[in-house]
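Blinded run. Sample ID left blank on purpose so nobody reads anything into the name before looking at the predicted structure. Input follows.
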Amino acid sequence: MTALSETPLTDQTQIVATSELVASELAGEVVILSLKSGLYYGLNEVGSCIWNLIQQPISVAEIRQALLSQYEVEFDQCDRDLKALLSDLSHAGLVEIR
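Blinded prediction complete.
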């Protein structure tokens, strides 16, 4: 797994959830348990949408396009928020950057 701080996110960057966790959907949100750290993480509705998309390798551009087609959000805001979430997920060890 590559640390996000070492690899800047581009539209072609592939993201996938790691296998060292357990996730469950509760009332439209996702709760994730990192088996490595023992910590729980929660994602809201939009975060849950992203989480569902990254169960298979997918590019940043594909994730952003899915969000833009599903939610009313400006491109730049979507891009910033998406990259911030992916950065947080990477730092928590919940995703792999390929």
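Unblinding after everyone has recorded impressions. The chain is about 40% helix and 25% strand.
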